[in-house]
Every structure is written in C-alpha cells, then in structure tokens.
Specification:
mainly alpha
Length: about 180
C-alpha cells in the first residue's frame, strides 16, 4: 500500500494569483481620472499638435504666411498647455494631497486584508497537515494491529503444528 504524500510536499498556490481586487485602477481608469481632473492639458496638447500639423502642411505647399501663423499657434498652444499644467497643479494640490492620503489608506486596508487572507490560508494548511498526520497515525496503528494479528496466527500455527499435526492429534485422541 502506497503512503499518501504530505500536502506540504506539493507546490502551494498563492491565494492572490489572478485576483484583480488588489488593484485599484487600471491604466484606462487612471487616464480617464486624469482627463477629468485636468481637461485643459489634453486640449492644449491637441491645439499644439493641430498647429504643428498645419505648419507642416503649409511648408509643403509653400504657403509661408500660413506656416508662420501655424508656428505662432503652436507657440500659443504650448504656452496654454504649460499654464494649464501650472494652474492645474496649484488648483488640484489639495485634491492630490487628499488622493495621496486616500491611496495610503487603501494600501493599508489591502495590506491588512492580505495579512488576514494569508493567516487564514496558513491556518487551512495547518489543519490539512494536522488531518494528514492524524490519518497517518491511524494508518500506522492499523498496520501495526494487522502485523500483531498476523504474528499471533503464525505463533498459533507453530504451537499447533499446522493442519497435519491437528489431524494426527485427533487420531491419537480417538485411539486412546
């Protein structure tokens, strides 16, 4: 009979593999949040790109007056973007501080949940190991009992001499 292997000998999976609950926001959610927080920055970037594209198109067609206007528009777009970044930074500074505190609290809560889940997993592993050891004790006791019974039968056979010795003994008793 093959001895069951210990649960600790197997590769133990982590409780957190593939669990998306431990991540607050993905890249698209973060981009959406940033666009909502500071909508003027993407607008300034779009104006800058449009002006740069218009200047490139005007240079290719040979319209230097239009190209000069587009370069000025690009400069205005870049200036607008930088002003929006500085103004947004100043305006949303208190929100960023609150967001940072919120993120720290969320991380602390998640860390506590991870610790609790890990402790729960360790307790489950301990119960499995304890159950496995109890099972092994029972199997060992059963094997020892079977060995005792087998030895007792062998000793009884030796004392009695087997079936031929029993038949001879019965014949002798019958003769007397």
């Amino acid at each position: 009979m093959e001895q069951p292997s210990s649960p600790l000998e197997k590769e133990l999976p982590s409780s957190f593999q593939g669990n998306r609950d431990f991540y607050e926001e993905n890249r698209l959610q973060k981009l959406g949040r940033k666009l909502k927080e500071e909508p003027l920055i993407p607008l300034g970037c779009a104006v800058t790109c449009w002006a740069f594209w218009g200047a490139t198109k005007s240079i290719r067609t040979g319209d230097s007056y239009r190209a000069q206007q587009m370069f000025r528009m690009r400069l205005y777009g870049q200036t607008f973007t930088v002003v929006a970044m500085v103004g947004g930074s100043y305006y949303y500074n208190s929100d960023r501080i609150l967001r940072k505190e919120y993120n720290e609290l969320v991380q602390a809560r998640k860390a506590q949940e991870k610790r609790d889940a890990w402790i729960k997993e360790l307790e489950a592993r301990d119960r499995e190991e304890t159950d496995w050891r109890e099972k092994m004790v029972k199997v060992t006791e059963k094997r020892e009992e079977e060995a005792r019974v087998r030895r007792a039968r062998e000793e009884e056979k030796k004392r009695d001499g087997g079936p031929i010795a029993k038949a001879v003994k019965k014949l002798r008793e019958g003769v007397q």
